[in-house]
């Protein structure tokens, strides 16, 4: 599995989780279970829900706390959270992601008070390390939080262990990051990639003063990543989104090797961007290998060549280098004429040569060709003690066997004898592989 992150509107912790769950909705229960195992209180609720902005459909991931100011007032368009050392921050950017680290709900004049209690990174790490989370999830969550702590320590000149996060943000920070770690661990992608990132514009107001977008911690986390300016204002990449990217160490492009698209997911942020959807898109690919391939398909119809001539012609095509298979199907053409519809499967690099051969060997005046994806089951051939070749196929439901009819036929064998010989050969082959 290879996963490409298409950062269209931006990336934050909640957007990453929403996009991944949109692609793998069957993992919602796993995420909910791990949030409890992480030690979050029962009054912390994570809600995965469908969302439509009028242009695209996708999902949102919302974390609320029973009795919290956020739940009382409803979702707020200025929902942010960032950690900058010890101080808490009042953000007024234009994007509106949920940023794990510090949570501040700004309503109206932004005049509500905050309690100045802090949790140091060393204590948060100890809590996660001592939790009942699966080891893979625990390691990923600690690694993402550590990325944030290191960046914040560098920005504010502190020791990593002394970086502290405001208590109001602890529950939602843990929820977003544990959910992200759960999905990263559960999907088990072999590799990740991300395209150019939107840099955003403007400033955020904090207790440290006015800070530029992207925030200083974000720029430290994303050194080496490609950026572009799409002309839209606001914070487009949050520190948590940046920490997730840094943890994943994605390639800068999908690469040139053919891949098969298996799943897609769209995760929404909390704000609308002018002229575009505020989304992160997930594209999950299966890498091509022995079980997957590309195949050339050549098709044409024949209505003026005798069956005898066509049989010889198609045998010659079938024997040509690069041909995988040739089939013909009787059908009706114009004026009610019986004709043969021919399909040739060939290697992609042999399409032109095989097409020319078809034009030489048959009376067709034209043909159609295309390239298609082909899934091929892993298979092998074994020979039994009776000299019967058996083809074994590894199917999702288990291995199956098929004896070669050419090896089972004989002038003095009846239908029943041939069937019994093939049955024994297939059973023997399966026993050899078990």
UniProtKB/TrEMBL annotation:
Pfam families: Ni_insertion. Residues 58-121, 396-416 are annotated as: Disordered. InterPro entries: Ni_insertion. Residues 80-92 have a biased composition (Basic residues). The keyword Ion transport does not apply. Residues 93-111 have a biased composition (Basic and acidic residues). The keyword Phosphoprotein does not apply. This is LarC family nickel insertion protein.
């Amino acid at each position: 599995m290879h996963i490409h992150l298409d950062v269209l509107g931006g990336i934050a912790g909640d957007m990453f989780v929403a996009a991944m769950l949109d692609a793998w909705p069957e993992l919602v229960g796993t995420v909910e279970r791990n949030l409890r195992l992480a030690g979050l209180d029962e009054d912390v609720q994570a809600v995965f829900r469908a969302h439509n902005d009028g242009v695209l459909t996708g999902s949102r991931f919302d974390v609320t706390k029973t009795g919290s100011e956020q739940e009382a007032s409803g979702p707020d368009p200025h929902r942010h959270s960032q950690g900058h050392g010890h101080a808490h921050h009042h953000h007024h950017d234009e994007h509106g992601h949920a940023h794990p680290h510090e949570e501040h709900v700004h309503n109206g004049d932004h005049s509500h008070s905050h309690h100045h209690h802090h949790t140091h990174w060393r204590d948060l790490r100890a809590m996660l390390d001592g939790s009942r989370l699966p080891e893979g999830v625990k390691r990923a969550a600690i690694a993402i939080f550590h990325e944030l702590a290191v960046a914040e320590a560098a920005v504010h000149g502190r020791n990593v262990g002394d970086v502290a996060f405001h208590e109001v943000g602890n529950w939602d920070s843990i929820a977003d990051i544990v959910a992200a770690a759960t999905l990263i661990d559960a999907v088990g992608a072999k590799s990740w990639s991300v395209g150019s990132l939107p840099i955003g514009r403007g400033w955020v107001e904090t207790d440290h003063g006015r800070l530029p977008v992207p925030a200083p911690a974000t720029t430290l986390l994303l050194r080496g990543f490609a950026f572009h300016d799409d002309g839209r204002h606001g914070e487009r990449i949050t520190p948590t989104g940046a920490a997730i990217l840094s943890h994943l160490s994605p390639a800068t492009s999908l690469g040139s090797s053919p891949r098969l698209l298996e799943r897609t997911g769209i995760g929404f942020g909390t704000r609308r961007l002018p002229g575009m959807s505020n989304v992160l898109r997930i594209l999950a690919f299966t890498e091509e290998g022995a079980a997957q391939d590309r195949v050339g398909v050549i098709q044409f119809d024949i209505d003026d060549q005798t069956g005898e001539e066509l049989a010889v012609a198609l045998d010659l095509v079938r024997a040509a280098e690069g041909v995988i298979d040739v089939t013909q199907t009787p059908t009706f053409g114009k004026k009610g004429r019986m004709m043969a519809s021919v399909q040739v499967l060939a290697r992609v690099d042999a399409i032109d040569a095989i097409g020319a051969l078809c034009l030489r060997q048959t009376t067709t005046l034209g043909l159609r060709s295309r390239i298609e994806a082909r899934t091929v089951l892993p298979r092998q051939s074994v020979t039994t003690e009776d000299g019967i070749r058996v083809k074994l196929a590894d199917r999702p439901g288990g291995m199956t066997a098929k004896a070669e009819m050419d090896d089972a036929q004989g002038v003095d064998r009846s239908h029943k004898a041939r069937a019994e010989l093939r049955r024994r050969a297939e059973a023997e082959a399966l026993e050899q592989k078990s």
